[in-house]
Amino acid sequence: MDITNYVVLAAVLFAIGATTVLLRRNAIVVFMGVELMLNATNLAFVTFARMHGDVTGQVLAFFVMVVAAAEVVVGLAIIVTIFRTRRSASVDDVNLLKG
Amino acid sequence: MTEFVAPEIDWLALAPLIVVLGAGVVGVLVEAFVPAKARRVTQIVLTLAALAGGFGFIAVLWPQIVAQPVQVVGGSVTLTPFALGAQGIIAVLAFLGVLVVADRTSTGQDSFAPTASAVPGTSYEDLARRSGLEQTEIYPLLLFAAGGMMLFASTDDLIVMFIALEVLSLPLYVLCATARRRRLLSQEAAAKYFLLGAFASALFIFGVALIYGFAGTVRLIGTPDKPGVIGVIQSGTAPLAGMSVLLVAGVLLVTVGLLFKVGAVPFHAWTPDVYTGAPTPITGFMAACTKVAAVAALVEVLYRISIGVQAVDPEIMRQLQIVIVVVAVLTMAVGTVIGSVQTDVKRLLAYSSIAHAGFLLVGVAGFNPQVQSSTLFYLLAYGIATIGAFGVVTLVRERRITPGSGEDNGPVGDDGVVLGEATEIAQWAGLGRKAPWLTGAFALFLLSMAGIPLTAGFIAKFGAFSGAVSGGLWWLAVLGVLASVVAVAFYLRLLVVMVFQRAQDEPETSQVEPVETGGSTTGGGSTSEGATATLTKTQVTTAQRVVVTVVRSRGPAAVAIAVCAIATVILGVFPSPVLDLVEQASKFVP
Asked: What catalytic activity is recorded (chain A) (predicted)?
């Protein structure tokens, strides 16, 4: 199978993730969209690494994973705090700041 | 099998970063091992010492770097004069920002929740407040953010830039959620900032992946034996040289990620909400320091890429310039026009910060490396005025007075008496009489942001606009001047309210919402409404009213505001020493 297909797959996954972020209303689902984007990036990194015959891209994928994990910690903490306060994780309910 | 070669590391060049980030790690240990009573003082001393130490190392490094820029650890940290200058500015602004954060004011409370994780309005939160808990973790978080910003501004490696982006963003997300008052707003600000910030960093890293796909490297300049993106483009040896669409898309996505941090339109949606919701000292810190780091990183990435692209494909270069010009125009327009209809001081300052991002981009859009020293000067002037202005906002408070209880002149130490910040512009009326010095300082910051001569802002704007003119974009500079004029209008409106309007300290109840309904119940006529109105009227003698008061600083914030005010004047009247200093800094490539 042609290796460029993986790049296309990565781009498609990235687009799905971005659409999720922009369209979905639940903060957890929005966050899942971000994670999907990061994992699409990982796929792109390892595919390009394979194309170039170079390990740099594979190492970079590890960095992205670590960052994604750190983001989960902070992000879920914030979302859970809001949920405990408001009993809702919808980004539409969070609308005190406007204008 | 090649033998492992230990890398040569220039520790002195890394010293500013090591001091700041290392102190952040020590700060975490302080949380664990220092007894609760001594913790706050220890953290403040450690934080200020680390930032001062970092600045000291930058000062020591400066002559050496100006003479010969260095790449440390194979370019992961690339210290050019521009990067080092940005680091120095971040260290100075972070120092001033921490001073504002550390001030407990005459109320004896800082701006942070006793335990940020407690659900607002619960007995647990009450208990935490009563027992005087403090969230001293904010100081290590501030250090991590400052360290991340310094690294963000001084790297050539896009992956290191991505990690620095997260190191500076993640603490800021948390800090946004820690306000002592208006906690729902604070948490909401954190959630918005986090979701949009994570989205932007995902765009950034996908851009990096595409650039890696095109060039086979994520370094921009690279080292002599391993050329970076620039070298690969110029020599035409990119692995996928035919697919320049990867390069264009990658650079665009990276630029979008950076513009988000800069707060440029159309990626500015988070700015007003986050600046309003976050604890005010934190708003000042991130408005000033994040802007410096993000603009410095943006300038470095764009200018380095432009070196590579310009020779090979001027068309890509032109398109990149068009993107920046369009964003600059939109940013100035949205910042000034929407800013001029704001009724909240913090929101107004947020839109002013968006407008300043536009003015900065005007200077960047000329793509003239020689004048980028003026960008550094602009960042310094803007940062000083911003930290000072938000410092003033922290001191203007609402105060609830219960007539008859003797609290009118009583001590203002109790939690129930001095409330949160009075951020409505209408509430600032008559501030000139209540606190002339503070008003004077605030006026100075506003005038500097407006770019009035004899303040730092004038010199800064002049530099930024001449940057655009020297790049052949004189019409953009004209637009910039027009936008500044609109901006002057909204700064002056705030000044007029503060100085010339009388304070509206007539009785207001905070308990019963429709206080003036006695007269203004507009013909509703229902019996229950009438009853409420009468009730309010009879209670009005004992009703609590909210007045605007200026709390005294316990020192740090006053020092920060004074330093900012003096620096604003000095940079406006005698700018030449600092201008000469940043003049040496317009060098991007070692």
From this structure: a quinone + NADH + 5 H(+)(in) = a quinol + NAD(+) + 4 H(+)(out)
